[in-house]
Amino acid sequence: MTLSGLSIVVIIVIVLAAFAMGWAFQTANRLDRLNVRVDLARQALESALARRAVVVRAIAAGM
């Protein structure tokens, strides 16, 4: 059984599409994890700034 040229091209295209989909899936997962990390870092920064603001207000009120 031999494959025609068109069959080989179709198989190659399917394999390349599968690799592209796998790469896109991994990239999307990586970006999602990065987005979660950025959100957590932003929340931590905002809470640290809020604590500093409370301290500054307390110091300013005491003067």
Protein model, in words:
The protein has 63 residues and is mainly α. It has one helix and no strands. The protein has one helix spanning 5-62. The chain starts with a helix and ends with a helix. The mean pLDDT is 95.
Q: What's the layout of helices and strands?
A:
Layout: H1 5-62
Summarize the structure.
The protein is mainly alpha-helical and 63 residues long. Helices cover 92% and strands 0% of the residues.
Which structural traits does this protein have?
63 residues; mainly alpha; 1 helix; transmembrane helix; rod-shaped
State the secondary-structure class: mainly alpha
Specify the helix fraction band.
over 70%
Strand content of the residues, in percent? under 5%
Element string (H = helix, E = strand): H
Low-confidence runs: none
Largest sheet: none
Shape: rod-shaped
Span of the ends, CA to CA: 93 Å
Number of strands: 0
What's the alpha carbon Rg, rounded to whole Å?
Answer: 27 Å
Q: If helices are DSSP runs of H or I spanning 4 or more residues, what is the number of helices?
A: 1
Oligomer: single chain
Q: Report mean pLDDT, rounded to a whole number.
A: 95
